[in-house]
Amino acid sequence: MADPSTYRPKPGQIPDSPGVYKFRDEHRRVIYVGKAKSLRQRLANYFQDLASLHPRTRSMVTTAASVEWTVVTTEVEALQLEYTWIKEFDPRFNVKYRDDKSYPYLAVTLNEEYPRVQVMRGAKKKGVRYFGPYGHAWAIRETVDLMLRVFPVRTCSAGVFKNAARTGRPCLLGYIGKCSAPCVGRVTAEDHRELAEDFCDFMAGRTGAYLRRLEKEMAAAAEEMEYERAARLRDDIEALRRAMEKSAVVLADDTDADLIALAEDELEAAVQIFHVRGGRVRGQRGWVTDKVEAVTTGDLVEHAVQQLYGEESGDAVPKEVLVPALPDPVAPVQAWLAERRGSSVGLRVPQRGDKRALMETVQRNAQHSLVLHKTKRASDLTTRSRALEEIAAALDLDSAPLRIECFDISHLQGDDVVASMVVFEDGLARKSEYRRFQIKGRVGDTQVWHGEGQDDVRSMHEVIARRFRRYIAEKEKTGEWVEETEVPEDSLTEEDGRPKRFAYPPQLVVVDGGKPQVAAAKRAMDELGIDDVAVCGLAKRLEEVWLPDEEDPVVLPRSSEGLYLLQRVRDEAHRFAIAYQRKKRAKRFRAGPLDAVPGLGETRKQALIKHFGSVKKLRSATIEQICEVPGIGRKTAETIAAALAEAAPAAPAVNTATGEIIEEEAPVTAEAAQAPAGAVERRGQDT
Description:
Strand content: 15-25%
Shape: extended
Largest sheet: 8 strands, mixed
Radius of gyration: 35 Å
Oligomer: single chain
């Protein structure tokens, strides 16, 4: 007997949204399928004290070895998917909760003279139109009751129909307007069949045209002041809208397709596949994969298709494969799929309709799968401890690095150079201690201003030196470094009692880059006498770990939790640096040749552009016209004119937010920044 606490999900892992859940035993067989309006609340009921559970429920949770769930959009989707999977997996603990071994369908007997709407089970009959299956017969009757208001089709049995025809009196439904009463000749057989066909079309999903027709009739009745008729039509429309709350997991009956969705970040990608056969979701698969190299969404789709259908053929490959992005090129993949199936296969991105809605559901499941995967790795204390131990072993540290600081450099072709410092403690990000640096070009004690050729290695040297100078300054205020609980009270923050600012030293410094960046960081620390902090670099291209004074890198296995933690730290530093660099660049105003005018600040450059409208018009202006601009004296105007005359025609201004070229004659604003031709945002490159 299994203990449910061994597989109970951790708090916060279960989403608070509609969905379907499956309990599996130790052999991975599905033993129970259920649905819930809130997965979090429903699943919590199964992990109570065993003594308080129903005997059958207690037997189920002690037989199970794992639980999994699928997120959907509405309860209707959950209802449809639950019973689809009950029929598919035939779970042993679901049997007693069904009133029959067959599923009920909504059937329209188009093979009769007067078609009838009814609940049917068992084998399907020729000439009968089926909709479903449904979970319960009462669910069908609820739907039919709403629909009969608009489509008064016969629902009575053959005996009741014959008796009404014999007596000339309709049944109760005929009197209250929920049956057109063909039994007493109120409508002809042809009119009644047309009603039945309209009912079938509406149930099949062709709802838009019919609703629009009713809305036009309602508007016309209101204009003619037939308010009672308009009110009836309004109620009919509302009834149909309630009835047509159809599930996104139900498509047209002839739909055979696989839907593949992806959720990804810089390190990993989660893949989710829904298998739709006969318009129903018949199965689901999913996995999380490491992104070993830089791949696009189209590349990930291609890999997923290969893994799915590599050993499949025939009907196992569906007519249609719906994906979030197409591989490039797409023709070879389509040809390969067609070869495996033996006929053409459509590979496309759904743009609208039910297939797009179902793709969004699959996408939500992929996103949740990725979040759950990362939550398990990041929040699991055992996993974090193992990651820190692996890092300590790989870098030959005396103890696990409980505080890790990572530095990254970001710039745009040497301009707007910034750096970031992120802090991870016990394997978790500590965002309150993140820091941002604006690189000043300081090397040692000498001020060196760099232009477009700003050196990433020098920048790394500068930021490491500045960080540890602050550490030394803070430490001198409190004396030699002691345990946190022994730090003098006046050097602690008010919020949590931790040392102020940079006074808390890391056990490991990680720099984004290879051997040169690591050497620069180590040199900066040596110059300041810091010899008790380890340093390493993580080169993005091959994910190699570089150590100071080592000719060869340390290569951690791709499955290593230590490498995963270092990647998270490095990517967080990159994200933080890029965000700061973009923010800083967006605030800058650049006006081409005006940037070269000595002593001309941002305010006066903006005033010039605002006054003349463009650099081209400013270049053709006279000195007297330039002097008309507030804040511009004659000497400055002469300097501006000389600089513009000597300068070559400026490159077109570029909006950094959108990348669009601003026409020369268009006014240049502070939001439009000019970048060098071919400029691209980039980070410090590994050497």
